[in-house]
Amino acid sequence: MQQARFILDEGEQPLANEVRRQAQQLQSIADVLPEAQSLQERLNSIYAEAKDIATELENLEGKISLNPEQMARLEERLDIGIKLQKKHAVQSTNELIAIFNQLGEDLKATLNLHEEIAELEKSKSGLFEKVQKTGTELSASRKKLAPSIAKQITQMLAEVGMPNAQFNIGITALSKPGITGLDQINFLLDANKSGNFQPVEKAASGGEMSRIALCIKSLIARAVHLPTLIFDEVDTGISGEAARKVGALLKDLAQYHQVICITHQPQVAAKGSTHFYVFKEQGKDGKINTQIRILAPDEKILAIAKMIGGEQPSEAAMNNARELAEA
Predict the structure, then answer these.
(1) Residues 123, 258 within the same domain
(2) Following DSSP, what letter does each residue of 60-127 receive, concatenated?
């Protein structure tokens, strides 16, 4: 209202005064141009209307009582609103209100957080009791069965070419439950009956480690589902009856799991159901490439015979290979 009244009747060049001046200009030419007389009268009417509007605006403005403190609060809120729009990268008050409501829900959830924490603490306590109970039962079962399992594995190691090996299972209590329960389990080996047991990964060679794994997995094959088992030259350093026993263990293990075995022992190779022959040959480009192919039944006998008698196996070696394959 102040701005409208200022433009109409105040300021350096009030609009009403400018209209009146233009009416006077038209009056000066009315004698020579009679048509200007009507336009001059219309401008005078506009002037009178503008003055009247300015007076009414002034009267209306006088009836409005503005509270300075309330105005200051409104201006402050408006300023805060503009800053919040910039902060949250929004363009309208409705968007700010939506953010406000979401923050209120988040705050409400936070206020109830102590109740959720109390419930979780209660649940944690109950679960910990179950862990302790189950862990105690598992630990007792381990301690009861460990000597028997260690004895069986020691006997099996003697059969697969480790007659002086002594196997043991170390069970150490943990300070708090872990991934293995309440115990730390260690497989220990004394390779030469020295009375000095060490972790198998330190005391056993690669071949010995494979045979230990073979013995352990043979014991648990029917009880535990295992993925494909790969044995790389598990028969290293053995021959004769020990190699035959390793082959028998592998064949028995293959009844429950897929077993892939890399071997140079005819006693072990003869126990396999499918045979792959790995060899190297020179390609057309002159490079040496490694190849692999499945052997036919007669090729399998020949390959086993070559393990026994060399590249040119005798008839005796061929007969021996057939006996091993049929055993």
Answers:
(1) yes
(2) HHHH----HHHHHHHHHHHHHHHHHHHHTT-SSHHHHHHHHHHHHHHHHHHHTHHHHHHHHHHHHHHH
pTM of the model: 0.52
Residues 142 and 42 in one domain: no
Residue 308 in any domain: the answer is no
For residue 209, what are the domain limits? Answer: 119-273
pLDDT tens by residue, 213-266: 888 888 887 777 778 888 887 777 777 888 888 888 888 888 888 999 888 889
User: What is the dihedral sign for C-alpha 259, 260, 262, 263?
Assistant: positive
Task: Collapse the DSSP code of 216 into the 3-class scheme (helix H, G, I; strand E, B; otherwise coil) and give the result.
Answer: helix
Joined together, the tokens standing for residue 158 give 């003697």
Domain count, the chain: 2
Q: Which two tokens stand for residue 28?
A: 């000066």
- Please report which helix (H) or strand (E) contains residue 56, including its range: helix 36-63
Distance between CA 269 and CA 255 in Å, rounded?
16
> Does 137 share its domain with 208?
yes
Q: Please state whether beta strands 288-294 and 198-199 pair in parallel, antiparallel, or not at all (unpaired).
A: unpaired
Whether residue 171 is found in the same domain as residue 248: yes
CB 20 within 8 A of CB 50: no
Structure letter (DSSP) for residue 228: -
Strands 181-190 and 166-178, sheet pairing = antiparallel
Q: What is the mean pLDDT of the chain?
A: 88
Tokens of residue 140, six digits: 């007792």
